[in-house]
Amino acid sequence: MKNIIILGSTGSIGTNTLDIVSKFPGKFRVVGITAGTNVDKMEEQIRTFSPLLAAMSDETAADRLRTRCKGLSTRILSGTDGLVKTATMDGADLVISAIVGGAGLVPTLAAIQAGKSIALANKEPMVMAGQLMREEARKARVRIFPVDSEHSALFQSMEGHRVQDIRRLILTASGGPLWNLTTQQMRAVQPEQALKHPNWKMGPKITIDSATLMNKGLEVVEAHWLFDIPASKIEVVVHRESIIHSLVEYTDRSVIAQLGLPDMRTPIAYAMNYPERVPLDLPSLNLAQIGSLSFCEPDHDRFPCLGFGYEALKVGGTMPAVLNAANEIAVQAFLDRKIGFLGIAETIRRTMGQHVPVDVSSLDIALKADLWARTKAAEMLAIVASAPAVVH
Ligand code: NAD
Ligand code: MG
């Protein structure tokens, strides 16, 4: 029996994780859960899974949850301190890191330092402080298992192989809901349209990141830190069907890939049970029925955010943290209809352009860069909203 903690239990990854837990009651016990503001779902999860600890980052939400759960055995905590206490609690073996955005950095890093293995969905902390996360994991002798489907595919395609024999990593990208639009058409895109992902059901932030291809830019950085492979050996190919989840090419030109119908429960279950594979009752891949798979180069002109990921990695230091924070501010502003779709890339470009990077030698430096970029990006929003990006 593994004792697990789920950071971000009410989200898309969090609920998929709990779905797996329910299917294997003898394998997992949920000892801690955390969320931001969703009191209804937290109450339901507390009543179903009876964790020892439950934390909400929002203090008011935590108060409401306490009232609703009076008389139950679960202790309810709040704020960042509550998230950290839950993430580091004694007796837990594995932490599923599934908060969205930079808010996951502090609790995830604390879990690593407390010696917990990590199943990592929350890619943003890896972008903000990848070197630190890797270093701390090494010191604490814990493993970080990828949950992101591409990274899980790379991890699976590397099993039994030597890192020095890798020639390149090839990340697949679905292209998202706006792949076929011209830049001119993108100018008028509304949040509803950008939130309609063709293949995956995910939270709103990552769905917008898929529409801008920022998600793939973040994933390039994530792959770099997870697998210690330089950016020059990480490529992206657009594969609209999301059947091949990513590929590894070896020096003898042999290419190994992992395939499957797009369902996050497969990579989540693999990270939770590694090295065991558990039987999941999901539809099987039928290649004859699918008929053909397509591939093409990503278009950097229409989707500049992918290039920002490579650029941030090349510059190094705090630049990836700045890229991530500017993106979070810009995505929220787009969802709030304060800027247009093209304004997302423009806000990130302008914020990165003003940053003077330093080494990320401590958590404090990463958090300072994050705060600087959020403030700077918020300033940029006004400029971007009044002067829309140049259309090629
Ligand atoms: P989501 O929006 O559905 O859920 C986010 C979770 O984080 C919720 O439980 C929410 O309460 C919590 N949360 C939000 N803001 C918070 C804050 N400030 N403090 C504490 N908790 C907070 O997101 P998701 O789609 O499940 O994605 C979670 C992470 O996994 C993201 O980093 C995303 O990039 C990554 N990921 C998701 C998918 C997917 O299929 N959804 C696939 C690959 C990677
Ligand atoms: Mg992914």
Strand order of the largest sheet: 4-3-2-1-5-6-7
What about the largest sheet? 7 strands, parallel
Number of domains: 2
SSE order in H/E notation?
EHEHEHEHEHEHEHEHHHHEEEHHHHHH
CATH superfamily of the largest domain: RNA polymerase sigma factor, region 2, helix turn helix motif
* Number of separate helices: 17
Shape: globular
Hetero groups in this structure are: nicotinamide-adenine-dinucleotide, magnesium ion
Query: pLDDT average, as an integer?
Result: 97
Distance between the termini: 57 Å
Could you name the CATH topology of the largest domain? Rna Polymerase Sigma Factor, Chain: A
Give a summary of the structure in a few sentences.
By secondary structure, the protein is of the alpha/beta class. The chain has 2 domains: 2-147, Rossmann fold (3-Layer(aba) Sandwich); 151-263 and 283-386, RNA polymerase sigma factor, region 2, helix turn helix motif (Rna Polymerase Sigma Factor, Chain: A). The protein has helices spanning 12-23, 39-49, 59-68, 79-87, 105-113, 124-140, 149-158, 183-186, 191-194, 204-212, 214-227, 265-273, 287-290, 304-315, 319-335, 342-353, 363-386; strands at 2-7, 28-35, 53-56, 75-78, 94-97, 117-120, 144-146, 166-173, 234-238, 244-250, 255-259.
